Amino acid sequence: MEARKIYNRVNVLRKDLGMTRKQFASRLGISYQTAGYLEREMYNPSLDLAFRVSELFELPVEMIFSVVPMPAITRQYLQKLMSLKDAQNGSDTRAI
Predict the structure, then answer these.
(1) What pLDDT score does 85 carry?
(2) Which domain holds residue 62?
(3) Is residue 52 part of a domain?
(4) Residue 77: inside a domain, yes or no?
(5) Would you say 67 and 5 are in contact if contact means Cβ atoms under 8 Å apart?
(6) 57 within domain boundaries
(7) CATH number for the domain harbouring residue 63
(8) Per-residue pLDDT reduced to its tens digit, 4-54
């Protein structure tokens, strides 16, 4: 069985945090080259690596990785931030 392509938002999220690819790779314990392949969607991460990426960005795995092409993150990212803010204020209305 052929592996499915895994789409991701790693590049956008890494840049949003102001992190270089080398810093990203170091934080995850992977090589700079692996980080590049991951960002260019030329490498499907292991389940463990997907969870480490999720923890680094503090986002659910499904907001970072998908088996279908992903829409622009702007609207979803803003919704996530708003839901986290609501949760902190005591009204957990997560749209995720």
Answers:
(1) 62
(2) 7-70
(3) yes
(4) no
(5) yes
(6) yes
(7) 1.10.260.40
(8) 999 999 999 999 899 999 999 999 999 999 999 999 999 999 999 999 999
Contact present, 38 and 10 (Cβ < 8 Å) = yes
Q: Which residue's entry shows tokens 């919704």?
A: 79
- For the chain, how many structural domains are there in total? 1
Q: What is the DSSP string of the chain?
A: -PPPP-EE-HHHHHHHTT--HHHHHHHHT--HHHHHHHHTT-SPPPHHHHHHHHHHHTS-HHHHEESSPPPPHHHHHHHHHHHHHHHHTT------
Strand partners, 81: none
Q: How far apart are CA 31 and CA 51, in angstroms?
A: 17
Quote the pTM value.
0.75
**Residue type at position 30:** I
pLDDT at residue 2, as a whole number: 86
Distance CA 67, CA 32 (A): 24
